[in-house]
Structures are given as structure tokens and as C-alpha cells.
Amino acid sequence: MEREKKKDRRYNLLAFSGSAALVALAVSLAISAVNAHTRKRKRRALAGSNVRVNLSAPEILQLANSIISKSKAVHDAVGSVPLDKATFANVVLPLAELEAQQFPLVQSCIFPKLVSTSEEVRKASAEAEQRIDAHILMCRISQREDVYRVLKAFVARGEWMNPEANRYVQCLIRDFEWNGLNLTSTKREEVQRLRSQIYDLSVLYVRNMSDDSNFLLFSETELVGLPPEFLQSLDKAENGKFKVYLRRCHAIPVLELCKIGKTRRTVAVAYGKRGGEGNLSVLKSLIQLRHKLARLLSYSNYADYAVAPRMAKSSSKVFEFLEDISVSFNEIAARELDVLKDLKWKEEGQLPFGNEDLLYYMKRVEEQHLDLDFGALKQYFPINLVLPGIFKIFQDLFGLRFEEIADIEVWHSDVHAFSVFDLSSSELLGYFYLDVHPREGKYGHTCVVALQNGSLSSNGARQIPVALLISQCQKEIDDHPGLLRFPEVVNLFHEFGHVVQHICNRASFARFSGLRLDPDFLEIPAQDITKPIEDRMCESLKRWRSSFSALKLKQEILYCLFDQIIHSTEDVDMVKLLRDLHPKVMLGLPMLEGTNPASCFPRSAVGYEATCYGRIWSEVFAADIFASKFPGGLLNQYIGMQFRKKVLALGGSKDPIDVLSDFLGREPSIQAFIESKAQSSV
User: Fold this and answer.
1) Is 469 helix (H, G, I), strand (E, B) or coil?
2) Residue 45's pLDDT is what?
């Protein structure tokens, strides 16, 4: 009935006749024109934000060229400063302000490739990113030796700077020297050649591993335990057997659910040697080139080069950390492994327990001991309740106030913009956009993008941060709420933690603002503030999150150690290393015969080389913060405000270990992490 009333009102103009109808039509058109003008006028940009949304493809490329021209002009000006005239005002300040001013413009060019519905715009965005990256690389590696010399001359003059400014200058110099600007021209050319070869081999490794055309054939009786809908999704061969491709979306369900041990083993072996001998050779060449690059840059090995600017500082510290954690969990992991072995003995007799059994029997224990229906659980997490719930927790904890902004310019009707204020002073701290529903052409995962970094200009004006949260949450349609799976809720919580981390940063230099932090430190604040909300989770759900956590951690440590060893030692036999390392870390469990994990471990090939330990590092020190400062739970605004002021506000402006030590009142410890895992172990 209500819809009928709305329909009647919508079309009531048709009830008029004759001259009355003409008058009504004229009035209606006039009102529509005014409203259209008003709507257009109100679709304004965010005050204080230099981020440009809705750029066309030509505008993106034009802006990219403008960014490059401006950058070149500033670098030319700094590079031309006489060495004996170098000051903070004519050397450091122009570079810092260029970085602060250009970052939102750069992001204006780049972020459309993640969110735009236009293929033309996405292509232009990707092209703009390539142009800008090439310019930045050129500045740091080959053509800006003049700027490097002037920076070094400025440092040599000894002009006083505050600690944050001094840290900024050291970062600039480190960037240049990391790329060989302190070397001779011949050695710089060698650095460039090595980087190019490393990039090409990394791409080749991933391409080899991503070949998803290989498959295994199984009959229905060999796939007992797999749900009917999974079997129906599989292609069939001419002989009627099912094709199980060596892709994660096929292999993992088989390893988790298939009751036939022989099938699990066959899939585990094939999946565990993707990339084959070719990738083993590629990884070996990659490691050799990385060590050569590190030696050119005055490091003893690549691991020391990769870890030096991070919180850990040295490869030896990473080894010590990983081995301490691994040994501390031996007893807990052994108990967990015994549970799995006992269950296999009950179900399959005296057959030896192998790697191929881990996922299956973990799943079996969860099914037997945890009363969880993840399908039913979704009803408790509609998106229209989850987001306000997340907002409330962060507002209450950190003394913030979020306000949605109406009639703001956005790139899609699903996007919402919010202001963030300090609760007590009402000071505007920043903005964030939410783009959380899927659509064609949009980036398919959940992440946070810094669009504008906070900074303090030379005239004392503060540039406020702007963030974007991208996700793929089901949209509410008519009377059907968009429901989230529990892992999606946790992930959304975690990523929104990065939004708050970005907004609460008060560093003076854009370099230290937002998410441009030491990677070892970046995840710690978000880890810390995304603990389970106890009063909203049932006991089974909490137990599920921590089930077999020690054993899973040992598996991760195994590959972190492998990654660290190959990048800190020359000429390692990687197959033998894994064969020896596996039983040592995994409590006697041998590496599955026939597998070749080094051929299908992309984290060591690209993106995380020598730094795979970072996720564990963050989780360990986040647990220390949570246990020591939030023993009664998260909702302690006094401690939350301390965390905001002493950790989030500083960003990268201080050494992360000093930031954590100041907040904790002591050096960080691994003990809280160990105790938390022991309490929740199966």
C-alpha cells in the first residue's frame, strides 16, 4: 500500500488537465532545474583535502605529467644550491613540502585504478602510476646525484634540527644510498642492471607458479567427503572423472574435507611442487643477484640489507626472535599434534601421520568439538550493524567523533565520506571514505589507501590526513540485509584500525604520516585494536580462532626461517635446507616426499624477501601491548587516549622500538604472546 501511495504521489501531475496542467508542468520543471542546480552546487570537495576524485583519463595523465614537471623543478632547484650555502630552508624544506603537497595528487592519479567503473580511467591510472614510479626511480638511482651531494653538504654543516627533522634528513640520505647514489657511476649502473634482472626473475617465478592449467583426475569415490556443490563446480574429463586443478580454490577444500588419505596425499604432493624445477632455478638465481646487490651497497648479505631500515635492524635479531618463539611453542604444538595423530589413528589405523593430514584433521577436530555453523552465524553480522558497531568501538576507545558528510563529491553512489573530530576539542583530525561494496572493475580485496598524509607546513598550517577503505561487503538489497562472514568482520575491523591509525597521526613530515611506517611496526597498532569483542562472540567462536594456533604458527616460522637463511647465506641447497629444517621446526614431522616448497613460495620471490617474519613480529608485540595495557578489555578510554597520543600520533617520527618502549614503560617482550597462545591452545 505504501508503494502505491508513493506511486500516486510520483505521478500526481497527470491528474491535472488543461491550463492547470500546463502551469503545474512549468512549476515542476522550474523546481527541478533549481534542485538540479542545488545538487550540483552541493557536490563539493572536502575542505582541506587536495585529493581529486572523478578525474577523466586525459586529466589523470595530464596531472601525472604536471606532478613529474613540478618534482623535477624542485629537485633542480635543490640540486643547484651551492654546497657551502646549503641550509634547512633551501634544501630540506622544499623537498619535505614537495612530498606533502604532491602525495595527494599522486594518489589522485593512482587510486582510480582500484575503484573506477571505467576501463579507460583504470588504464590511464595504471599508466600514470608507471610514469610517476619511473620518475621517482630515476630521481633516486641515476640522475639526482646533485641533490644527494647537497643533502650531504647540508648535514656536514651541522645546522641544528629537531629530532624529527633530523630523522627525515637521514631517511632522505638512506633512500639515495640504498639505491647506490654514494657509489661510482659504474657501480650505480650495476645496481640498476641487478634491480632490473631481479624484477624480471621475480615476475617469471610468479608466472611459473600461477600456471593453473595443470590438474589431477579423481573419481567420485576418491573424493568422498567433498560437498555436492563443490563436486558440481568441477569440470569433468572425457572418462567422467573430476578435474581438480592445482589452484588454491580446488586444492584446499580437498585437503580439508576429503576422507581418502591417498587423494589428500596426491593433491598435497602436486600442489606442493607447483613451479617445478624451473622455479627452483629461478629462485636460486634471484638469491644470488640479491646477495650481489647487497654487497655492492656495503651489506654482508641481502637479509641484512632488507632488515636494516626495519624495527628488527639486523638479520641476527630476526633469527633470535624466530628461534625464541619457535622453541617457546614446542610443548603446546606437540600437544596439538598429538591430538591430530590420535584422531588419525582412530579413523585410519596405523598409517603414519603426514603433512597432507594437517588441514584435514584440524578440520575434523573443529567439527567434533566446536559447535559452529558459519552459515547461521552470518545473520548476526549485517553490514548495517557491523559498520556502526566498529565506529562506536573506535570512537569510544580513542576519543573520536565520526560524522558522515552529505552531498560530497565521490566516484560512485555507494561511496560515503566521513569527518573525524577529536571528541573533547572538536578539532577536525581528518577524513575517510568508505567504498565497501563490490562492483565490476573494482579491486577485489579489503585494504586501506592513504589518499593524503598529514603534515605541518612551514607556516604552521596542518594538512589533514585522508584515507580510503576499500572492501567487498555484500550490499543490502530491499529487505535482504548484506550479511558478512565472521572472517570478513575481523578483516574489516583490522583494516579500519589502519584508517584510525592514519587519521590520528600528528607527525610534522608527510614521510612519517599515515601508513608510510616501518613495515615491522605498521601492523602492530591495527593488530592491537582488533581483538575479539568478547560479549559479541560465543565461546566456540573464540576457540575456533585459536584452534591449533601453535602448530599453525610453527608452520609459518618454518618458512620464515627458510626465507631468512637463504637471504643471509650464500649457495644454499634449498631442497636440502627445507628437508632438514622441516622436522626440526615441526616436531619430527618430515617434509612431504615429492614436494618442492621452494618452487611455490612467492613471498620469498617478490614482496617479502627476507622479511616474511613481519606478520609474526607485529602479532607478538601487539599481544604485549594488549596484555599489559588493556587487561580488562578494550573499552578503557584513558588507555586508548594514551595509545593514540604516544603511539598513533607519532607515526614514523621516532624509532618504533622507542615508541613501544615509551608506551609500555619497558622494552617489548614476547612473553604475553606465548601466554595468550598457551591459554587458548587445543
Assistant:
1) strand
2) 83
b vs e for 97-134, b when ≥16 Cβ sit within 10 Å of the residue's Cβ? bbbbbbbbbbbbbbbbbbbbeeeebbebbebbbeebee
Hey, which of 360-374, 396-410, 471-485 has the most confident mean pLDDT? 396-410
d(CA 308, CA 177): 13
Say which residue, 530 or 665, is predicted with more confidence. 665
53 pLDDT higher than 80: yes
CB 124 within 8 A of CB 195: no
pLDDT of residue 381: 87
Q: Residue holding cell 626465507?
A: 563
3-state secondary structure of 529: coil
Catalytic amino acids? 495
Q: What is the dihedral of CA 616, 617, 622, 623, to 10 degrees?
A: 60
State CA 131 to chain mean position distance. Answer: 24
In percent, how much of the chain has pLDDT > 70?
88
Phi, psi for 217 (deg, rounded to 5):
-105, 130
**Cα(466)–Cα(432) distance, integer angstroms:** 5
What are the φ and ψ backbone dihedral angles of 656, each rounded to 5 degrees?
A: -55, -35
Residue 595: CB atoms within 10 A of its CB come to 22
pTM: 0.86
- How far is Cα 109 from Cα 328, in angstroms, rounded to an integer? 47
Residue 482: all three cell numbers together: 548484506
Write the secondary structure of 339-404 as one string of H (helix), E (strand) and C (coil).
HHHHHHHHHHCCCCCCHHHHHHHHHHHHHHHCCCCHHHHHHHCEHHHHHHHHHHHHHHHHCEEEEE
Query: Letter for the amino acid at 476?
Result: E
CA distance 91 to 156: 13
